[in-house]
Amino acid sequence: MSQIPSYSDICILRLSAIGDVCHGVSAVQAIQKAHPNAKITWVVGKVEAMLLAGLPGVELVVFDKKQGKVAYQQLKQQFKGRMFDVLLHMQVALRANLVARCIPAKTKVGFDWARSKELHSLFINKRIAPAQQAHVLEGFKGFAHAIGVPDYKPTWKMPVSCEDQAIADQLLGAERLAGRIFVISPAASKKERNWLAERYAKMAEHAHSKGFNVVITGGPTPLEIELSAQIIANTQTPILNLVGKTKLKELLCVLKRAELVLAPDTGPAHMAVTVGTPVIGLYAHSNPKRTGPYLYQDYVVEVYHQNLLKQTGKTAEQLPWGTRIKGSELMSQIQVDDVIVMFERVVLEINNDIEPPL
């Protein structure tokens, strides 16, 4: 068996988004196990840093994109006189590529040719191994493998405090004490990726009829506030509305208390994975085999593949991996009955303590 190469100073570059940095945590913590003496520095976005703050053994360097050119200048100044053994450049977006230019490292590891875009190849001098039809998290595993980390099963130790959990429990109140919790995290970053409010309401009714307390979570954006209000308006089922009332770490603690989460393609779905809470994912625009809740991909209800074939005449395997499809009405093709069937299956497996297949 070949010896794992030694590193003393490793830099991780993954700025966004919430779901992707959750995937990144599992890779970083696997790297820490394989290289226990290495110093780990993670360059990350401002919002994402709120979730990762306190990550054990990791120095977070925040890149605030809203500062424009100043953010790049600050990064150069912060790393002046420093030289990392290796930079793991885990993001191909142009902004991230420009950030990579500001990070001094002997070796800069990036994605393989097939996954490189937006001039990514100009900012790296080594590539991870190619992977066919890989989940985003598998791509991050590739970076760990590139620096000698043996294959591993992803695990997470998320940085939340007793205070974070206490605040979450206080917000949950009677729901936490009264029994099982079903969380609906209904909003994605784009409106077209959201399911219909009246259908979320139907799922709230069904879950309540099965003995679950229903909680809606989300951020303080107008889209999320409006969607949660529409869901509540479409049902007489009692729903605890925590939209806009939790910080990211508190939201993570709420998801940890839940027994089951329902969500579209959005960050909280991946947050739930990190704390071991099963997720029913609703997908229409992106391939759930690439971006679905990693441990619960078998629990996805999707219309992506049928619409991809309809729009392009090709399957996902015949197109560039990760091809997205467009259409403001696609999510409406996901039927309540199909989600109820999945809900019943997942609850049965939870009750019988069955491990979900990957």
What are the defining features of this structure?
Glycosyl transferase; Rossmann fold; transferase; 39% helix; ADP-heptose-lipopolysaccharide heptosyltransferase activity; 358 residues; Glyco_trans_9; single chain; 14 helices; alpha/beta
* Main sheet: strands, sense, barrel: 6 strands, parallel
Q: What is the subunit organization of this protein?
A: single chain
Instruction: Classify the beta-strand content into a percent band.
Output: 15-25%
CATH class of the largest domain, please? Alpha Beta
Strand order of the largest sheet: 3-2-1-4-5-6
CATH superfamily placement of the largest domain: Glycogen Phosphorylase B
- Number of DSSP strand runs: 12
List low-confidence stretches.
none
- CATH architecture label of the largest domain: 3-Layer(aba) Sandwich
The backbone outline, from C-alpha atoms, is globular
Radius of gyration: 21 Å
The rounded distance between the terminal residues' Cα atoms is 28 Å
Descriptive overview:
Keywords: Glycosyltransferase, Transferase. There is one protein chain. The model has no long low-confidence stretch (mean pLDDT 96). The longest helix is centred in the first third of the chain and has 17 residues. The chain is built from 14 helices and 12 strands. α2 links the parallel β2 and β3. It has 2 domains: 138 residues, 3-Layer(aba) Sandwich (Rossmann fold), CATH 3.40.50.2000; 190 residues, 3-Layer(aba) Sandwich (Rossmann fold), CATH 3.40.50.2000. A 6-stranded parallel β-sheet has the order 3-2-1-4-5-6, sandwiched between helices. A 6-stranded parallel β-sheet has the order 9-8-7-10-11-12, with helices on both faces. It is of the alpha/beta class and 358 residues long. α8 runs parallel beside α14.
